[in-house]
Design a protein that fits this description.
By secondary structure, this protein is an alpha+beta fold. 23% of the residues lie in helices and 39% in strands. α1 packs across α4. The chain starts with a helix and ends with a strand.
């Protein structure tokens, strides 16, 4: 009988050990997958994690089920390092959006987390479990406190069998980072980490001795050592301009791909003046018009953040337009006189409609904006005859499309280092004709699709200014065709144009930015051959 109980007890213990081993292996693998999906260039995508917390919840559940005391020393060390980094991320998400962990009372020293059978604060995990037990100064370069001054969080997990190699690698990377440690004017500038935990680095010499053990470009021990201020701004992949920190420029962070957080307001007025004295025919041959056509558009775009996770913005688009047909050598700026409507001038609100902007994927650099514009002005396309005098009739000049426009914009941007940025945009503009009876000539109109594709390459000489070049190609398609007085379902190509330009943006305050752009239509088919002059002003609260 005793023998049976002994065997049963052994089987139970082995089963428990096996389950614990399975949990640990699962923890390391899931941690690896999680860090790969949410960390980029040392920054964490807290917005994405907050919108889908399944993975982080699974990991914190595993942390609560694994007993560190039952692991081997090297397993426990790797487990606790990953646990610390994961719980920091989880606590940021619990309070997101925030600009810094310092905004959360007791973030490191009061808030407790379940780790196996233990209730520990983050400080207890770091100081009482990791530092006290292992006495390894290299851990300071793998534990991440969610601040930009902290050594960057990695996009991989720490594994027991790789831990020594990973610790050495991350320590070497951090100490050779010129933003983390640098020498200037006979002084050594180093992180406050070396001040706060000085004892960890001086068991076998000075702090400078420890640094030079891993640093390629050695620091001089004769130099004065300066501990530069620690920047507690959140290591957020989607970090935006926060009034409370004043740390970032919104022209770099609020690209068209980014969404506003809940309660934020953006108002943008973008003024476009297009002027031409010629157009290009189907063979791309420039044909002189003998006149100057000027089209001015003031697009007012209002957006408001409505979701906590920066997934949805809603707003309104309003198009203000004025048109002037003038002598060929006349100044394009005369269009800004906003003359009354006649056969050579038109002014007014041409269209307006609701808009929604959303982030469809986890990638914060991708977003979609969709607007539905309703024509407001009567006879936008100038088909109605008007009496000029008793002897002749004419028409109003083309003002805007007299069709319902469904405008979809697809945005993507990518930082290239700290000074360059690539921005891509692809649009689908569906222009749906109204019933024939809605038009003055009582004739049906075709449905049109414009598909402009644009690329912008920006350089940031400072955080408040950028210079960029742009290239756009825009084909136009007919979704049907007018045969006689009837609509025929026949897809057709109506023309295209390409333009290139150079622009400049400058942020004049924490909330207001200005933009200027010049572009030239260098080729086209059955489209214009003019230039644009653009000026924009943008407000973000």
């Amino acid at each position: 009988m005793n023998f049976k109980y002994t065997i049963l007890s052994l089987l139970t213990v082995c089963s428990c050990l096996n389950l614990n081993a399975q949990d640990v292996n699962s923890f390391f693998q899931k941690s690896e997958s999680f860090f790969k999906s949410v960390v980029e260039n040392g920054k964490v995508d807290y917005t994405s994690i907050q919108s889908d917390q399944k993975e982080i919840e699974e990991l914190t559940t595993l942390i609560s089920q694994i007993s560190p005391e039952k692991l081997t020393p090297i397993e426990r060390k790797a487990f606790l390092i990953n646990t610390y980094n994961l719980l920091v991320i989880k606590e940021v998400v619990n309070n997101y959006p925030i600009s810094s962990t310092q905004k959360v009372n007791g973030f490191f020293e009061k808030i407790k987390h379940q780790v196996g059978d233990n209730r520990w604060t983050l400080n207890q995990i770091e100081n009482d479990q990791i530092r006290k037990e292992y006495n390894d100064p290299r851990v300071h370069f793998v534990l991440n406190c969610a601040a930009v001054s902290c050594p960057p969080v990695t996009n991989f997990a720490y594994f027991p069998d790789l831990l020594e190699e990973q610790l050495n690698a991350q320590t070497t990377i951090a100490i050779n980072d010129d933003n983390f440690i640098y020498e200037k004017n006979g002084k050594n500038y180093i992180s406050n980490i070396f001040k706060w935990y000085k004892g960890d680095f001086t068991e076998n010499g000075s702090v400078i001795d420890f640094i030079n053990e891993y640093r390629n470009k050695k620091l001089s021990a004769k130099n004065r050592t300066i501990h530069y201020p620690y920047d507690w701004v959140l290591n957020d992949l989607n970090q935006t301009l926060e009034a409370e920190t004043g740390s970032n420029s919104f022209i770099q962070t609020y690209t068209p791909s980014k969404l506003l957080k809940k309660g934020q307001l953006e108002v943008q007025l973008y003024n476009n003046l297009y002027t031409q004295t010629a157009f290009r025919n189907d063979d791309r041959v420039k044909v002189d018009l003998g006149i100057r056509e000027n089209y001015f558009t003031g697009l007012i775009n209002i957006l408001y953040g409505v979701s906590d996770n920066r997934k949805w913005n809603v707003g309104l688009d309003i198009n203000l337009r004025t048109v002037r047909i003038d002598e060929e050598d006349a100044s394009p700026l005369k269009v800004l006189s906003f003359r009354k409507n006649d056969r050579t001038n038109r002014s007014g609100v041409s269209s307006l409609g609701p808009t929604v902007k959303f982030a469809p994927f986890k990638n914060p650099n991708v977003s979609i904006k969709s607007s539905f514009l309703i024509p407001i002005t009567k006879d936008n396309e100038g088909v109605e005859q008007i009496i000029v005098d008793s002897q002749s009739v004419s028409r109003y000049p083309f003002f805007d499309w007299d069709r319902f426009t469904w405008w979809n914009q697809f945005f993507y941007d990518k930082n290239i280092g700290s000074k360059w940025q690539l921005f891509l945009e692809a649009d689908l503009l569906f222009r749906f004709a109204k019933p024939a009876s809605s038009y003055a000539d009582n004739n049906p109109k075709d449905d049109i699709l414009d598909t402009p594709m644009s690329a912008f390459l920006s350089y940031f000489p400072s955080e408040k200014s950028t210079v960029y070049v742009m290239l756009q190609y825009s084909p136009r398609f007919g979704l049907n065709k007018i045969a006689g007085n009837e609509i025929v379902s026949e897809f057709n190509v109506q023309g295209d144009f390409a333009q290139t330009g150079i622009g400049f943006k400058y942020q004049i305050s924490n909330k207001i930015g200005l933009e200027v752009l010049y572009s030239n239509f260098f080729t086209s088919a059955n489209q214009g051959a003019g230039n644009t002059f653009n000026f924009g002003i943008r407000y973000i609260n």
